[in-house]
């Protein structure tokens, strides 16, 4: 934690102001009226303009208003982008804008088919937000040329909805998370609505299929509203989509089974008059919003009466339109509109053939741009009138730039929760249980902007103290005993046995300006590998975008980890999420392995204060020794790693003979046990013990902001001294992180190497050669001065491993002197204090 721990330490002692909990704001419910002829004309013109701008972005680099004949030189040399979904998105955006302007809604637009990027860029340009943020993309012909040229162009913007797109919180590079992000954004935002478009290709993904159940977790009174719009245009890249090829009866039964109230719309087929399409959809959208307003009124009235409000059937819309709507009906004699051929770039040879260039010219001119833009190239005045004003514009909603509305957490002083450590290893704690006591205060102090998400494991991971001050939010049916099991209609803990949903909810919550954390079993956090990839990429890009303000970090607590999953077996033994995360950009990723309860408290205080990071904290929940007092823990965490001089036998002023290094709570125990054996057996050996909390400190300073200089690394680990390193995860990661420093390949790492089963805790360590006896053997092997002189000790260590395994296989538990080992006990018989260590794993999960 080297860069911010000092700040964390100072802040935690400063009293922070308290504020009364504000009342739940009323639902925006302005007077609505049917679509008038004037509104219809303006709405349709806005849609034409948005579609023209979208096609222009995909194809043109010059001649943006077609004020001269279109030439091949006006067309980009590389045509990239996606047209097929875009006209449906711009249609929905236009109608959402009408509803916002009438009703005064605070709204955001979540684009599941994120490859409809040109449509969302076009919408924010027509609303004026784009030019406000990017003045070089001005509202004139020169700005239009820039708008078109930059799209999918070197030095420009991506083809998907991305951080560069105003109003977006949802990266379009991956499908499946639109609803989970939207629901996460709506937690604790009671006066907001998320118009959330689910593409029919996206709807085939597992995460999206599960996310329809999010409506069981939203509270009609204290949370906002998600209006899902299932956009069925019939095709993916080259195939039909499943939900587009089942009838409305079957699809309606599916949506009602999920607990939604589906409204069906089909439009744009067989040459239907656009005016009729607009009128029918405006009426349907008004119906949906009227039902939402009624639900909100009923929920508020129930709250005033002190009554519980049962879960409503929230409306959703099934929206069937042609793929590539308003585009060329056919190209080269093959159907295009209403076909998979319109998915990406329908006229892929527009720069290469006269025929396709003529087709593109006709397509662009079909929107009649001369009627939509004035002489200077600015959008016609009535187009601006079709959009809401100020922050009611979806592209300017403050919550979509979450750092703007972010409020710092009011954190209790973590020192007040310290465990007593009169001597290293003299007391025992369950680290995550201690953390849970502190998190109880975090929840209590931040009742509106902090949530804990997890897949049914908050109590299993020993954080259940939070239930003293909150409940698990649950809006499905209740059994009589549920309230005694910490379920309630509103609460700060949200659990669903889907890591995808917990991750998506948390990301949406953070992206809209709040704080949170996710706890999970270490082995199963891999389920969201791809999701955290996208979030880390989002953070990396927003670091480079001045107008995107920093958001709270994405914080993980991984417990029930590899070394204490001996009871659940091989399937639950995988520490590889750390390896996955260190592939991300160095300025984004932080990995912490606190060795005991006090270092965990200090670490988590730090990560909850941080911004723009993905923080991975791995800590065990089982009883473990406490090594450092709180003062020592803060200092150790601030450094990120350090020499534990009380554990070694080195002589001040002289180089050690060997360095025993460790990272992780269980490797720390084994390293100290090995150090104790060496102290007793080879008292002349000068041993240095180094513990690493911040894994990124092992990198070179040129590769990571927390990395050590060559001089600093050599100061800790020596320049030519053998290092035996016991690591929590896969051993090769340490080599990878330290390779610039390990010039002579002197670091010898022990860690998990895919040797696991249902067995005892110590047998798990022996299977992976990370046990204390093997570490001693490694020291004898690595220190040249020991060699054959200490072969008898090495053999005794081998014999001890054989004895330990035989005992475990006969008795089903570890040797008492191992299970109850404590620092400095010299192998004495177990006492009452240390006996709790023998519990090993539990059977939860």
UniProtKB/TrEMBL annotation:
A GO molecular function held by the record: magnesium ion binding
Keyword hit for Lyase: yes
InterPro entries in alphabetical order: Phosphoketolase, THDP-binding, Transketo_C/PFOR_II, Xul5P/Fru6P_PKetolase, Xul5P/Fru6P_PKetolase_C, Xul5P/Fru6P_PKetolase_CS, Xul5P/Fru6P_PKetolase_N, Xul5P/Fru6P_PKetolase_ThDP_BS
Domain named Xylulose 5-phosphate/Fructose 6-phosphate phosphoketolase C-terminal: residues: 621-823
Protein keywords: Lyase, Thiamine pyrophosphate
Signal peptide start and end residues: none
Leading EC class: lyase
Region (Disordered): 1-33, 819-845
Record-annotated Xylulose 5-phosphate/Fructose 6-phosphate phosphoketolase N-terminal domain positions: 35-404
Any single biological process term in GO: carbohydrate metabolic process
Gene3D superfamilies associated with the record: 3.40.50.920, 3.40.50.970
The keyword Lyase is assigned to this record: yes
Entry superkingdom: Bacteria
Cofactor: thiamine diphosphate
EC number(s) recorded for this UniProt protein: 4.1.2.-
Sequence ranges of Polar residues compositional bias: 1-20
HAMAP family for this protein: Phosphoketolase
NCBIfam families noted in UniProt: PRK05261.1-2 (NF003617), PRK05261.1-4 (NF003619), PRK05261.1-6 (NF003621)
Family (UniProt): Belongs to the XFP family.
Protein name: Probable phosphoketolase
Species name: Brachybacterium nesterenkovii
Lineage: Bacteria, Bacillati, Actinomycetota, Actinomycetes, Micrococcales
């Amino acid at each position: 934690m080297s860069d911010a721990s000092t700040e964390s330490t100072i802040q935690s002692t400063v009293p922070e102001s308290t504020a009364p909990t504000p009342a739940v704001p009323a639902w925006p419910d302005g007077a609505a009226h049917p679509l008038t002829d004037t509104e219809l004309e303006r709405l349709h013109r806005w849609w034409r303009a948005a579609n023209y701008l979208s096609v222009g972005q995909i194809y043109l680099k010059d001649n943006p208003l077609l004020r001269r004949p279109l030439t091949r030189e006006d067309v980009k040399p590389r045509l990239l982008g996606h047209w097929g979904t875009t006209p449906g998105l711009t249609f929905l955006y236009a109608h959402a804008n009408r509803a916002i302007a009438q009703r005064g809604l605070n709204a955001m637009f979540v684009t599941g088919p994120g490859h409809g990027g040109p449509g969302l860029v076009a919408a924010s340009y027509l609303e004026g937000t784009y030019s406000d943020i990017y003045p070089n993309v001005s509202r004139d012909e020169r700005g239009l040329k820039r708008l078109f040229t930059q799209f999918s162009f070197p030095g420009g913007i991506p083809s998907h909805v991305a951080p560069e797109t105003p109003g977006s919180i949802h990266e379009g590079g991956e499908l499946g998370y639109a609803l989970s992000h939207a629901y996460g954004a709506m937690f604790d935002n009671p006066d907001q609505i998320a118009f959330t478009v689910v593409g029919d290709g996206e709807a085939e993904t597992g995460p999206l299929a599960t996310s329809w159940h999010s409506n069981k977790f939203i509270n009609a009174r204290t949370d906002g509203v998600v209006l899902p719009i299932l956009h069925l245009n019939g095709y993916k890249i080259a195939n039909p989509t499943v939900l587009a090829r089942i009838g409305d009866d079957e699809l309606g039964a599916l949506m009602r089974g999920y607990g939604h109230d589906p409204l069906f719309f089909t439009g744009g087929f067989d040459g239907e008059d656009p005016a009729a399409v607009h009128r029918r959809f405006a009426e349907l959208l008004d119906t949906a919003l009227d039902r939402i307003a009624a639900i909100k009124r009923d929920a508020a009235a129930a709250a005033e009466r002190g009554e519980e409000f049962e879960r409503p059937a929230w409306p959703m819309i099934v929206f069937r339109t042609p793929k590539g709507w308003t585009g060329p009906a056919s190209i080269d004699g093959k159907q295009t509109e209403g076909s998979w051929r319109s998915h990406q770039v329908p006229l892929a040879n527009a720069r290469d053939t006269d025929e396709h260039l003529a087709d593109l010219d006709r397509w662009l001119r079909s929107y009649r741009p001369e009627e939509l833009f004035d002489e200077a190239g600015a959008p016609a005045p009535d187009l601006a009138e079709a959009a809401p004003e100020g922050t009611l514009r979806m592209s300017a909603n403050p919550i979509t730039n979450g750092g703007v509305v972010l409020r710092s957490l009011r954190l209790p002083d973590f020192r007040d929760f310290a465990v007593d450590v009169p001597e290293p290893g003299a007391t025992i704690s369950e680290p995550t249980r201690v953390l849970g006591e502190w998190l109880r205060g975090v929840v209590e102090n931040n009742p509106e902007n902090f949530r804990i998400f997890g897949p049914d494991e908050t109590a299993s991971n020993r954080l259940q103290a939070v239930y003293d001050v909150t409940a698990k939010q649950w809006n499905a049916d209740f059994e009589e005993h549920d309230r005694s099991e910490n379920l309630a209609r509103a609460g700060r803990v949200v659990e669903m046995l889907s890591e995808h949903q917990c991750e998506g909810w948390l990301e949406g919550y953070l992206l809209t300006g709040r704080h949170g954390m996710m706890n999970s079993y270490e082995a199963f956090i891999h389920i969201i590998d791809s999701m955290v990839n996208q979030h880390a990429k989002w953070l990396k890009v927003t670091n480079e975008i001045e107008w995107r303000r920093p958001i709270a970090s994405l914080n993980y607590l991984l417990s029930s980890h590899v070394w204490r999953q001996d009871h659940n077996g091989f399937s639950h033994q995988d520490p590889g999420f750390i390896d996955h995360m260190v592939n991300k950009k160095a300025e984004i990723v932080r990995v912490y392995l606190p060795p005991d309860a006090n270092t965990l408290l200090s670490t988590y205080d730090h990560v909850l204060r941080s911004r723009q990071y993905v923080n991975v904290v791995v800590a065990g929940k089982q009883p473990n020794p406490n090594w450092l007092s709180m003062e020592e823990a803060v200092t150790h965490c601030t450094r990120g790693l350090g020499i534990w001089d009380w554990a070694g036998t080195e002589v001040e002023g002289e180089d050690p003979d060997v360095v025993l290094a460790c990272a992780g709570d269980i490797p720390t125990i084994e390293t100290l046990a090995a150090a104790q054996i060496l102290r007793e057996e080879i008292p002349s050996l000068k041993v240095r013990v180094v513990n690493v909390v911040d894994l990124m400190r092992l990198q070179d300073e040129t590769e990571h902001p927390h990395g050590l200089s060559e001089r600093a690394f050599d100061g800790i680990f020596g320049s030519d001294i053998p290092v035996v390193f016991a690591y929590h995860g896969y051993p090769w990661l340490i080599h990878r992180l330290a390779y610039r420093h390990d010039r002579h390949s002197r670091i010898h790492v022990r860690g998990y190497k895919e040797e696991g089963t249902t067995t005892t805790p110590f047998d798990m360590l022996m299977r992976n050669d990370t046990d204390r006896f093997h570490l001693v053997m490694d020291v004898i092997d690595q220190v040249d001065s020991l060699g054959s002189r200490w072969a008898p000790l090495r053999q005794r260590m081998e014999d001890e491993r054989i004895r330990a395994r035989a005992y475990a296989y006969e008795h089903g538990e570890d040797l008492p002197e191992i299970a109850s080992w404590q620092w400095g006990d010299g192998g004495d018989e177990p006492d009452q204090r240390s006996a709790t260590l023998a519990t090993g794993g539990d059977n939860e999960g």
